[in-house]
């Protein structure tokens, strides 16, 4: 296990260096592009009669349970780190569009994408049940802000845009995981539960996550407030994420939602009332470094997953059609929320277009696809999910800056 961790960290660090030194793309996108190029080079060497290195890397990547690693560990760290730097007052100011996008937006996207996927799959002669199409809609619905936030900063995007994108993505990951879990439970049971039972399960996961996150976040806040020792205070936040995620799993509540709530409490209440300047500096430095490292590992792993997936041109064409369907569903969820917000406050020009194009898909979608039961439907959905995520990050992630500069008002 130690050899696996060491090898992957060293490889990711090398890819990060190559991107920074020679390619110069935004860090997370650049790491993924570098990993993709590395994967293609290995495949090229195999075609030339030198398969040894590709086989060794495949063995290395194959030992990593991507779904378990991301969903049970990395996601909690990433969401907590992201929530630490979100201003709660800003979040409250845009709570309606964020709330609508992160809840009803996910539900609408699940149904719209699932319905369109059902007909697109049929167009290619693939018989995928409607329930599995809904599962695809749920797993592909959460947006991933990691790759786009740096671009938004350099493009001088307005605060409402950044707040809405960050706030939505922090909560819609948890919502999408809950929706996916409910649908997956239905698929595995082989019977449709009552609406009441489904709503109860959803409420237990989602609301339970909010309550649990609030409790442990406030408890750690009180502990931090009771001492003046920055090393211990930072360790308390680390223990909060590790222990809190494990406890949330045992309690069958949403760990992602719990970590977002806990992060908001520590990042706002704790930062203002329980920490001195030194603790704030250490806390920010520690979590920013951890966040950057985990993002690099995540996007490198996404890039190198190419080595494990069989290539099929039909999957590429289907993924292209589904990418259009996903953008359409994104527009259908973003536009009503923003138009509603305009009734009470001024909304920056181009917000709908930027939020639509900035709704990148990321590692959560791949991890959820890996959680599907083994079978031909899983193989198909996993392959298409991977292609959609890659195209989303590469196409939308590398062009969102131009879109912002072209249509948005500078802050």
From TrEMBL:
Checking InterPro entries in the record gives: Cation/H_exchanger_CPA1, Cation/H_exchanger_TM, Na+/solute_symporter_sf
- Which residue numbers delimit the Cation/H+ exchanger transmembrane domain? 11-405
**BP GO annotations:** regulation of intracellular pH; sodium ion import across plasma membrane
Q: Which residues cross the membrane?
A: 31-50, 70-88, 100-121, 127-149, 170-189, 195-220, 232-249, 255-274, 294-311, 317-342, 354-374, 380-404
Classify the protein's membrane topology as the record does. Answer: Multi-pass membrane protein
Please provide an example of a Pfam family that matches this protein in its UniProt record. Na_H_Exchanger
- Say if the entry is tagged with keyword Transferase: no
- Key words, A-Z: Antiport, Cell membrane, Ion transport, Membrane, Sodium, Sodium transport, Transmembrane, Transmembrane helix, Transport
The Swiss-Prot or TrEMBL record describes its family as follows: Belongs to the monovalent cation:proton antiporter 1 (CPA1) transporter (TC 2.A.36) family.
Q: What is this protein called?
A: Sodium:proton antiporter
């Amino acid at each position: 296990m130690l050899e696996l961790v060491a090898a992957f960290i060293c490889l990711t660090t090398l890819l990060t260096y190559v991107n920074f030194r020679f390619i110069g793309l935004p860090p997370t996108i650049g790491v993924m592009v570098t990993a993709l190029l590395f994967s293609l080079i290995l495949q090229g060497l195999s075609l030339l009669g030198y398969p040894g290195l590709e086989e060794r890397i495949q063995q290395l990547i194959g030992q990593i349970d991507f779904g378990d690693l991301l969903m049970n560990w990395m996601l909690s760290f990433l969401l907590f780190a992201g929530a630490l730097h979100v201003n709660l007052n800003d979040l409250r100011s845009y709570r309606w569009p964020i709330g609508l996008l992160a809840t009803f937006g996910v539900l609408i996207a699940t149904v719209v994408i699932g319905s369109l996927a059902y007909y697109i799959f049929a167009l290619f002669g693939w018989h995928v049940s409607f329930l599995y199409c809904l599962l695809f809609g749920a797993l592909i619905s959460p947006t991933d802000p990691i790759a786009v936030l740096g671009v938004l900063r350099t493009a001088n995007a307005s605060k409402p845009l950044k707040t809405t994108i960050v706030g939505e993505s922090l909560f819609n990951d948890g919502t999408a995981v809950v929706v996916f879990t409910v649908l997956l439970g239905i698929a595995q049971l082989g019977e449709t539960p009552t609406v009441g039972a489904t709503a109860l399960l959803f409420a237990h996961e989602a609301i339970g996550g909010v309550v649990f996150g609030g409790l442990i976040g406030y408890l750690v806040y009180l502990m931090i407030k009771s001492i003046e020792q920055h090393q211990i205070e930072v360790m308390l936040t680390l223990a909060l994420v590790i222990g809190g995620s494990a406890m949330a799993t045992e309690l069958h509540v949403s760990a992602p939602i719990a970590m977002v709530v806990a992060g908001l409490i520590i990042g706002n209440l704790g930062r203002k009332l329980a920490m001195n300047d030194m603790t704030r500096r250490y806390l920010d430095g520690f979590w920013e470094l951890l966040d950057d490292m985990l993002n690099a590992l995540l996007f490198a792993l996404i890039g190198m997953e190419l080595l494990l997936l069989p290539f099929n041109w039909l999957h590429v064409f289907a993924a292209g059609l589904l990418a259009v369907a996903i953008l359409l569903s994104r527009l259908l969820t973003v536009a009503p929320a923003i138009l509603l917000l305009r009734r009470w406050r001024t909304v920056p020009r181009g917000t709908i277009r930027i939020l639509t194009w900035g709704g990148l898909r990321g590692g959560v979608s791949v991890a959820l696809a890996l959680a599907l039961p083994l079978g031909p439907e899983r193989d198909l959905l996993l392959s298409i999910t991977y292609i959609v995520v890659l195209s989303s990050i590469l196409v939308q992630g590398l062009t969102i800056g131009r879109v912002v500069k072209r249509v948005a008002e500078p802050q």
